[in-house]
Design goal:
The protein has 123 residues and is mostly beta strands. It contains no helices and 11 strands.
């Protein structure tokens, strides 16, 4: 059974960067669609980035487009989210999620979830 372990969260100043990782065991993450979800205070869990299981096409939510980059490193059986130019509205709990379906862009689709990690950005 696929297991996902996250790391890389923390607190940074506005405009700085973080790299989140989602490391898999029990399966080859390259065969799964992966989504990154953010849940801000008092908000719903929302997909902010995703990569397809079929052709590695990428999806980015408009608010992070041009600032965040999702990538696979299949040699490490991991997926990363590089977050640049962090804004206050980027703060929240970040989760990676995987599924055998083509995309994981809504929470209900995902079979497998990381434990989540916190990100804050302040002056």
């Amino acid at each position: 059974q696929l297991q996902l372990v996250q790391s890389g969260g923390g607190s940074v100043q506005l405009g700085e960067s973080l790299r989140l990782s989602c490391a898999a065991s029990g399966g080859n993450l390259g065969n799964y669609a992966v989504g990154w979800f953010r849940q801000g205070p008092g908000k719903e869990r929302e997909a902010i980035a995703g990569i397809s299981s079929i052709d590695d096409k990428l999806y980015y939510e408009d608010s992070v487009k041009g600032r965040f980059t999702l990538s696979r490193d299949n040699a490490k059986n991991a997926v990363y989210l590089q977050m640049n130019d962090l804004k206050a509205e980027d703060a929240g709990s970040y989760y990676c999620a995987g599924d055998i379906s083509a995309w994981v862009l809504v929470p209900e689709v995902a079979r497998y979830w990381g434990e989540g990690t916190e990100v804050t950005a302040s002056s």
